[in-house]
Design brief:
This protein is mainly α. The chain has helices at residues 2-21, 25-35, 55-70, 72-82, 93-108, 114-128, 133-148. It is built from 7 helices and no strands. Helix 1 crosses helix 5 and helix 6 (114-128) runs antiparallel to helix 7 (133-148).
């Protein structure tokens, strides 16, 4: 479980950087792979700033980044449809990318239970974004999951 959490955090870092720099997420992922990864000690307790993530962590982070890039239009359409009175551009960059990651896992990541995908996004939002982000991310993902009935499988 810890490896998946680290993968989600790395994917979030890549998606955030790609959006800020106006690059494709996979381009950013490849660039970071060449230049080296810097794992925040908060991601993996005891990790040094220069620790290289494990192959499993990087593989799942790549799956998430690739999935968000490939399904970007569909993910954003869902976010816009269910985000009550919130334009996607007005959302904090971290929040919208956490929602994209979780939605990708919910809709296309068959091995990730819906509650796990939602909880992981909420926990990252609480620790990395605004005071209200955890509630916002939880509510948005919960509405989408409930209405799409993705939790019934």
């Amino acid at each position: 479980m810890r490896a998946r959490r680290t993968s989600r955090r790395l994917a979030l870092d890549v998606l955030y950087e790609a959006e800020i720099r106006d690059l494709l997420p996979l381009t950013t992922f490849e660039e970071r792979s060449r230049l080296g990864w810097y794992v925040d000690g908060n991601i993996d307790e005891g990790a040094e700033a220069t620790d290289e993530p494990s192959a499993d962590v990087l593989a799942y982070a790549r799956v998430l980044v690739t999935g968000v890039q490939e399904h970007h239009a569909a993910l954003d359409e869902l976010i816009e449809r269910y985000a009550d009175r919130w334009a996607i551009e007005r959302m904090p960059v971290i929040d919208r990318n956490l929602v994209r990651i979780a939605l990708f896992e919910i809709l296309w990541g068959a091995e990730v239970p819906v509650p796990v995908a939602i909880n992981e996004a909420v926990e990252l939002a609480k620790s990395l974004s605004t005071d209200d982000s955890g509630r916002f991310v939880n509510g948005l993902l919960g509405r989408i999951a409930e209405e799409a009935q993705v939790g019934d499988s």
